[in-house]
Amino acid sequence: MAVMMVDWRQDVPGGQKREYSGYTGAYTYDGKQLVTTVDAAPDPSRIGTKQPRGVRFESGLIIMIPPPRVVDGVTEHREITWEKVSDV
Q: Which of 14, 24, 34, 80 stands the most exposed, by the fewest C-beta atoms within 10 Å?
């Protein structure tokens, strides 16, 4: 599995940074959770970690749910929507 996430907003509000994140590695999927064991990433601290994501399917989309994280003292709950764009 390979993941690259980029903040594509044209304008980033003042004081905020444009986020970029990514990783790749082998994964397991048990029907509810996908866990990737990271073997390469722009952030070396991720290498060797396990990245768990809850998974659900809606209207042909895959919704991946990372664990909550705290940013600037605020707990974020995120969902990442994936859409298959090609069979190639």
A: 14
Residue whose pair of structure tokens reads 């599995």 in the numeric block: 1
Pairing of strands 33-40, 80-83: unpaired
Determine contact, residues 65/72, Cβ cutoff 8 Å.
no
CA torsion 78→1→17→64, rounded to 10°?
-10
Q: Which residues contact 39 (CB under 8 A, 6 or more apart)?
A: 24, 25, 26, 47, 48
Using one digit for the tens of pLDDT, what is the confidence trace for 24-62? 999 999 999 999 999 999 999 999 999 999 999 999 899
Q: What is the DSSP letter of 42?
A: S
Q: Which long-range contacts (CB under 8 A, 24 or more apart) does 31-38 make?
A: 34/1, 34/64, 36/1, 36/3
